[in-house]
């Protein structure tokens, strides 16, 4: 029997009897009363992850890379702004959607951001440390900078959740933290160079290389260049130089291009995934999203590619959110805490959206290039909180005039505390020894990596207990 969608959208009582979830819930309550309906929802949920990953990797990130080149952005600025958005698009979009919908849905968006934070701050660094053949060396100053700004954003998040309402000015604070972060990336290298010239620490007529140059910051001052520009000349060289900041002679690309290294990790599963899942999805998107590549005629389509990619990310994220929200409703109907939405967001969306990143980071860490993966992972979390939460909270608060209500804010706040503890663990085992012994590099090895992984799952387990019990 054909379904009349006009009937489903109708807000009459008869329509609600047929489809209680409504159009924003994709009428999933019609099918999930049966076992096969649950299976369909699970398939849809994981297909949306695959679709979002393909859109971001093949269309969104390449279009943003071209935009960064057009704007002549420095690598750090490009990585912290447009490219970070490309990597964090699913979490940010679902946060925007759930904030607009309001009610219990807001918890789901916050949970996805916090779950992504736990992955980026603890799980990914831990896996990189465990997988690396020798201790990873992280530059102390960039890591210190990123951690400080992340603490500022996380502290604001935890404090603002205390009274259960987020006001527009609180959203402004988060956005200002991010603006300050980007401004620091833009102007700090120039300030340091000016200081060194005035104090005769460097020769202003010498252009420094960033090879084995711990004291200089020329790598921070380079303009961004997509890896494709190098890959066309020598694919192996481009890959190696992109993830080895010590030995490289050419510009370094971003973590969005780590997928080449992940090929050796997966094996048979990758073959199955590519043939039966990825290939059909890629075929579909090739017909609905114009491709663009730096250095080719298609480069001029980058704005169209960007806008169409954002549209499809929004569509697939909406579907993912609808399935997640339906599962939250079903779990609450079983008698569990109303704040379980945050837990679902953390586990299914925050962690789930990071699976591809985890595989890629593991692959490059095995090859000895995990330091860049960690730097990009930690830095992107600032965008997640400041823009992923701050921007929709500000807009919704200004429209409603009374702020954004956060259901179960006290329990959600505890998730923020757990994430804060994770940040302190990262500081204690990486920055702490470097600051105490006045070393230029922070070291992360197998033992420290294992500690971070354990802390991640202990924190998640602790929050699961608190969330379920209410």
From TrEMBL:
It is a multi-pass membrane protein. It comes from the Eukaryota. InterPro entries: K/Na/Ca-exchanger, NaCa_Exmemb, NCX_ion-bd_dom_sf. One of its GO terms (molecular function) is calcium channel activity. One of its GO terms (biological process) is intracellular calcium ion homeostasis. GO terms for cellular component: plasma membrane. Its main location: membrane. The chain crosses the membrane at residues 34-56, 77-97, 109-131, 143-161, 173-191, 301-323, 335-356, 377-395, 415-437, 449-468. This is Sodium/potassium/calcium exchanger 5. Belongs to the Ca(2+):cation antiporter (CaCA) (TC 2.A.19) family. SLC24A subfamily. It comes from Blastocystis sp. subtype 1 (strain ATCC 50177 / NandII). Signal peptide: none annotated.
